[in-house]
What we know:
The complex is a heterodimer of chains A (about 475) and B (about 325). Chain A has about 475 residues and is mainly alpha-helical.
Amino acid sequence: MSAVRDPLQVKFAELLAWEQRKRYEQVLTCVACAAMALALLVLPFHGLLPFSEQLRWFIPAALMLVIAPWFFYRWRWQNKDATRALVRVDKTLRLDERATTAWELSARAESSATAQLVFKQAAESLLAVEPRSLSPRQWNWPSYTVIPLFVLWFALLWFDADRPFLDRSRPNAPRTLAHKLLEFSRELQESAKSEGLRESLKAGQELENLARKNIDAKTDDEPFKKELAGVAKKLEAGGKPGADANPFSAGESQQSLRDLRAELEAARDLLDLPGGDKGARELPQQWLDRLASMPQIKKQFDKESGQGFGQNDLKSFLDRLERQATSELDRRALIDAQQFLEQMMKSGQGKSESSTQTVGRGEKESLDDDGVREKRFSNLPGKEPGKKDDGVNSLPEFRGGAQTQVKGLLGEGDSSGVIYKGKPTPGKSELSEQEVIANYRRQAEQELNSERVPEALKETIRNYFLSLGGGNR
Amino acid sequence: MESVAEIEQRIKRARRTFDDLRAEIGRVIVGHHELIEQVFIALVCGGHCLLEGVPGLGKTLMVRSLGETLRLSFSRIQFTPDLMPADITGTNMLTDDPSGRKVFEFQHGPVFAHIVLADEINRATPKTQSALLEAMQEQSVTVGGKIHRLENPFMVLATQNPIEMEGTYPLPEAQVDRFFFKLLLQFPSRDELARIADLTTAAPLSALREVLDAQGILQMRQWVREVPLADAVKDYAVRLVLRTHPRQETKNGGESLAQRFVLYGSSPRGLQSLILAGKARALLAGRPNVSFDDIRSMLLPSLRHRLILNLEADAEGINAEKVLGQIVTEVAEVA
């Protein structure tokens, strides 16, 4: 009667092999799910891992290799699993445990007539059965979870969500020049967009592309510096005064240029004022009164000795002024960018230059070397020339060590001097005088733009800084 | 060696016999289908039954009918407080032999029959009750130092009334354990009652047809033991029996009814009953192997009288059925 038992044994082997395969697939899914969950959990600790950042992409695979043996041992295929599988077959086919009994009897090589009858009855139902259709795969929750977990983990890594953790856990880890440039380029673009500076916007985009390219290529800083040098030259060329005569002197502050542009906007209304004769040679008195309330335009108007301006002359004058002011702002932004690039090339990474190299905004946002953006407000209202320092000046807190920033208060008359705060860095300063002055000028303008400086004092303060004559020093 | 066809034939015959028996007894007994099946299972397993039910449910009639359909000798012993052991087993009587000499001659008691109905067994004194012990276990009685073999097949069907407990002597645990099954008779339903009224108040029925003889029963006993049992099913039965013991830990770590209310769990005889009854049920169902369902079906009749519950169970109205019901739900088929 082995004619019945042998095919039945083959069928049992087939059934159990399928069940075993399903089991290993499930274990593998569980391993993958657990590995992905662990990979997400260790994301904040990437900085503590003792290998390069590139290898973080292989963390799930490594975790899988580590935990897989335990999972496969814990859920290894055992004899009771085979029994369970056959009991399930019995239930599905309503065999009243004939399959289970036949399997055990065949394993014991039973040859009694009763055993043969069990084989026969089990074979009648089992031989025609296809294991895959009888007991199809059933996806458990880890199967449904593993792909979303993978996508989440991949997205987090792709968008460098672990970067802050990496940087925080590695305080001395150098940030590449490309990252700094990327940050600067974004700020430059924002600033250019808000002020309508076309050349600066273009330069910002160009810098961003360059930074991105280098970040993606993971190139070193040295070859990157060479590329920066090329871009800096380009910016330098763009920052040179144009052939057309620009009425704004180098001492004209950026804020005054911005004020001028704001006044120019307002002055457009003048053209629509009633009583004006387009062909008239003289401006009506009410126009002149309005002009008097716009100090920046008035200044330029006086320079042009605008007596005898007609309405058309005034329009072309205003248009020209706006073009020139925008062009001047654009040029200065390019110079700032060029200076930033030069500083970057000189200082390289690990230096604390970025805090002074942000594009001027209402409030100063700075990046420290840790890459953490923090807002700093100067609580120094400024000092009017000739007035004594009453000793209540409180400068922004300086950090010691390599990040020490030297700030000073320059004044006229008796109280001039430099105040050092924080722990000085031993050794020779690497910043040139020009750079220091440029930095201070920028800081002063930023402080002036802040709401903390009273409107009435802005002009006085501006005049004070202009009187320092940074260019001459 | 038998062939597969012969085994198939044998199973069919067993099933047909049982169907015939059920139909024949069903002529006089209304309802109690499950009870009739269980009594027959006990018979083909070589066991004895303890029937418990209020008077008038047809216990005696059923046993009598069984004797008639099986072509077996039947005797009834009405247990009373003054019944003596010798009244059951028989005694040596002084008689004259053909030569005129006085000799002791053994007079067989009512226990010498194939089927013995021990009616209201708990009314006799423990001394008398224990006279059945040897008969039930060894299938023999010893009188005057001489062993007398009982009939084969031999089956004791004892009845007891669960409500009228005054003047009764509860059976000792050792004797209760010797009963293969303890069966409870339920009160008939409305339809069954109506049929009982029709049957018992009309013209008497014709005599019952004999469907099986002693030889046939012995043969079936042999067949039952040849039914194969998978290790997985056997393990299930073992785990069920083990779980009746209060010291067995539950899977979820909580306190089970068995742990709380059982004083002593089932004896190994309970496991024997369970498995043997499972085999018999499979045979009577026309199957060549035992299923988990066979074991589950036989759990209550096999084990309910083997669980000794504590006083707390009595106070809280917990009975063996409840405990076993929880065990069945908790124990997985495959460990």
